Structure formats: structure tokens, C-alpha cells
Known about the structure:
The chain is an alpha/beta fold. Helices cover 28% and strands 29% of the residues.
Amino acid sequence: MLCIIDFGMGNLRSINRKLRSVGISSEISSDTKVISSADMLILPGVGNFAKAMYNLNDLGLIELLNQKVIIERIPILGICLGMQLFTEYSEEGNCEGFGWVKGRTQKFSFESDNKNRVPHVGWNKVKTFDKSILMDGFDKDKRFYFTHSYHVVGDDPAAKFLKTDYGYEFDSVVEKDNLFAVQFHPEKSHFGGLKIISNFVNFHET
Length: 206
């Protein structure tokens, strides 16, 4: 069973609809019993990092998610803020994250003459390379939909990071063992987003 974790900050129904459109059943839940029985997880998120961690703690989900992800090693896909929560720390609220991936989350920062605006909103490319599970089957010009002010700065030699350029390169995809995450929104990225989700689910069902 695939569970979309509901901690009050995400496009849950949009993700659920995308999953149904490719024949994947899922359940949206914050119930610890439902999450405990899941064999795949999606951690979405839109909004403030510190608020997200507060909500997860308030729902009693932090210890449970550590158990599922680190001990049981079930597959998890983080989306947008969900990807950032994988890191050790965020500038947004000066808050610790799960620490599943070594690195931090920081705000875009540009020189005064840089024309890039914050937040980064719109379609952008991910620089792909061989042996990426999520990006399998994509060409180098494929675009995905982003909307975010903060981004991941990975520092984990055990992880694979893919890059996107917005004024400078930032980490937009991460893969590490059973951990997968994207900074963009697959639920808003049309057919490309469907394939990302399918790649995640199908890889772990084989």
C-alpha cells in the first residue's frame, strides 16, 4: 500500500489524482496505523520548513517515519518541501530536518544585478545522467514545474544528486538507497510528472 502522508502542508489530492491516472492506488493519511502498514510512502509539502517539522512532530510521525525509512527501509518519495525535509537543517526557521540525507536547505541568494527572482517559479530543466531511477527514459531537455524559494545543498557522498540551473546550480533530485526526492512538482508537470511517479513505483514493485 502506498500512503501519501498528510501533515497539513501539501497538494495531496493532486498527487492522489496523478497516481490514479496511471493505475496506482494510494491512501492519504496522517493515521499512524495506516502509515505503519504502508510499504511505500510519499512525503509532499508546500510551505514553511519549521512549520512542517512542527506538524509532523505534533502528529507523532517523526519517530514513526524514522522507523519506516531508516530501519524498515521502505521506499519514500519526497516532493518539494518534502525533499527539503530529508536534509539535516534548514535556514527557514533555523530548524533541524530528518537528516536522512546529509546537507542543508537554504534560500536562493543572488547578487543585486541578477535578474532571477525569488521564488523560482515555472518550468526548468533537470540535468540528467545515466543510472538515475527517477529520470529513467527522459531526454536532457525535459522540463518540470518548480515553485520554491529554498533549495537543497547536498553534502552526502552516498547520495546521487541531479542539478537544475537557476542563477546557479542547485540540487533538484536526490536518490539514496530507498530515498528519492524531487524539488519540482510532478503533480503539476504533466506527462513528465506522471513518468517520475511511475518510475518510483514501478522500480520498487519489480
